[in-house]
Amino acid sequence: MSEMTATQKQHLRELADRAHAKQLTLELTKLYDKFRKWKDNEITPWDLNEILRQYHNDTANELYQTYILVSDPREAVAKAIVNNILNIADVNEDCRPFLEGIIAFYRE
Question: With the C-alpha atoms ordered 12, 18, 21, 24, is the resulting torsion angle positive or negative?
Fold first, then answer.
């Protein structure tokens, strides 16, 4: 397989950014609901604090590793497709061959 062009790399970086924003929004919406429950006295401040600690240690860390630490956007885009954050139809036809093996790996 040939190397990706600058245009293809840019397209995949943009998709990775879109996936990051979408997944971050989903996770922050869950946190927003927890804040609402705390505000409505459905959970204690200690419960909320534990939820925030878990979010920081687990979810935020995973998102950081997936979207920020990874220098190759193919990895992030493939994970986003496997996790239904993005659809393969979002990927330009000429970029799909660069993702096929990575997607197959994450689906196993």
Answer: negative
